[in-house]
Amino acid sequence: MSVLVFIDQSEGHLKKSSLEAMSYGAALAAQSGTEAEGVVLGPTQEDLSSLGKYGIKKIHHVNNPSLSGFDAQAYTRAIAQVAEKTGANMIVFSNNVDGKAIAPRLSVRMKAGLVSGATGLPETGGDFIVKKTVFSGKGYARIAVKTPVKIIALNPNAFTVTEAGGTAEVLAFDAQIDTPKIKVTAVNKVKGEIPLTEADIVVSGGRGLKGPEHWGILEDLAKALGAATACSRPVSDSNWRPHHEHVGQTGIAIAPNLYIAIGISGAIQHLAGVNRSKVIVVINKDPEAPFFKAADYGIVGDAFEVVPRITEAVRRLKG
Amino acid sequence: MKILVCISKTPDTTAKIAFTDNNTKFDTNGVQWIINPYDEWYALVRAIELKEADPATAIHLVTVGGPDAEPIIRKALALGGDEAIRVNAESHDSYYIASQIAAIAREGGYDLVFTGKETIDYNGSSIGGMVAELLDMPYVSLATHFTLNGGQASLTREIEGGEEVCEVSLPLVVSCQKGMAEQRIPNMRGIMAARTKPLKVVEPAAVDAFTEVVGFELPPAKAGVKLVPADQPEELVRLLKEEAKAI
Asked: Is A302 helix (H, G, I), strand (E, B) or coil?
């Protein structure tokens, strides 16, 4: 019996959501009186032994050329072999883009019940029950997992990263994997930007900013805060901002610690993609904007006057 | 070519979410039901576009649900599906649902299985991956573009902070999201034609669910917005630092 954490990486570097998954896995292991181990697939630039500080005792590194491009089928095969070898009965993923592709496949392969979008540690007094978000963040469901092996895909930003110190034992794992059927031909990443799903703070703009030429005030605030930038659907549909910045139900769903919405009225579809944010700030000159009902803090005012003053105050604060 | 499009019945995006029976059931009172938007706007419409490019293509629809799912599947037929299969079963377990879809897919010998990226009720993002594993097929998730050249597909999928382009041979399972296609509205001709298109009802395969919903909760109510005067925006920064501890 043990916990196995899939430690996801991008271009050889760990994703922030992997740190959360490891911290969660360590807490889950402590709760269950067992140990947490990790699995890393493909070449990496990380010092894997240092991941012991997140409470991981052993790292199984499968460095097979078949894993250099992402193929959910090949990744699933590798993780299943590690899980079987280690006797893991709880497997933790981040509910991120890769986790959403692999965890369901592994669920079938290992005949293991999956709870995706988990928000916290399970109840283990009787049944193994995990809480997850449903109805696009408008509710929670408590899911009982009835299989001997359980898989949990943790929502990004749902669990605090904790560092306890320690070093992990790194073990090379020789997995048998067929040649992947999917051939990755290009990876196009926006350089120098914080990925939206990884960001602690997101500053987002809507039609209230009146045009792409006015985005500088938003970018200045984002830069001062170390935040990612985002936008509402009408903004991306109008090509004011790139589509990968669109947050909302049809765009990217996010759950940062702080979401600042500027000139966004707060249509229900937008709220469905951002309502898991811990703190929501709304700046809008329309006091009737529905977004104020979902906000923690708000300013009824003109963004062009208010936002630069907020940016200045943040800069003073950060010195 | 044969395409199977997975269709789910979900509450309308604007539906009020409430629970009954001691928070063990979703309150369907006054709820309007729709085709899950990702299934309709992206998976189904992209399949229709492929059929428009190659009229020899057949689009079959599958849904797992009771008789009350039929208005939804008829709408999907009106948009452009050729025939539909309803697996007569109710379940909230993704493995159970995926197993029913895989059984249909296996029997039908499809070249492509399209799903939406997730349903807007259970938000599991699981069906595509599970169906792919059950069928031992490759799976591309969160796809934003899909083109076909003979038996070879080229896809773009979302990754954190960007996108990835890949190539893969059919058969294939794809979960679809924004970018794949644009929403369409059924026309009168399609609605009339849908009335006579085949809708087959089949009984479910014997499968045990892996999970069970034991209860629901609503998020804690918000305390209400704290408004900061527009002429003192600096106060917001102080509140975010000292009170919310968010910066």
From this structure: coil
Q: Which of B121, B212, B244 is closest, CB to CB, to A134?
A: B121
B 130-189 near A (Cβ less than 8 A): 130, 132-134, 138-142, 154, 157-169, 177-179
How far is Cα B175 from Cα A277, in angstroms, rounded to an integer?
26
Torsional class of B22: left (φ above 0), alpha (ψ -120 to 50), beta (otherwise): left
Chain A residues lying within 8 Å of B171, measured CB to CB: none
| pTM for the model | 0.95
Q: What is the mean pLDDT of residues A96-108?
A: 97
Query: Hey, is A57 helix, strand or coil?
Result: strand
Contact A139 B215 (CB under 8 A): no
Whether the per-residue pLDDT at A253 is higher than 80: the answer is yes
ipTM above 0.90, yes or no: yes
What pLDDT, on the 0 to 100 scale, is given for residue A250?
87
Q: What is the per-residue pLDDT across B82-117, written as a single tens digit (0 to 9) for each?
A: 999 999 999 999 999 999 999 999 999 999 999 999
Tell me the per-residue pLDDT of A116-139, one tens digit each, with 9 for 90 and over: 999 999 999 899 999 999 999 999
Q: Which residues are CB-neighbours of A52 under 8 A, at least 6 positions away?
A: A165, A166, A167, A168
> Does the pLDDT value for residue A166 go beyond 90?
yes
Instruction: Pick the residue of B214, B240, B242, B245 with the most A CBs within 10 A to test the interface with A by mutation.
Output: B240
**Cα–Cα nearest to A225, from A262, A190, A268, A172:** A262
First vs last C-alpha separation in chain A: 50
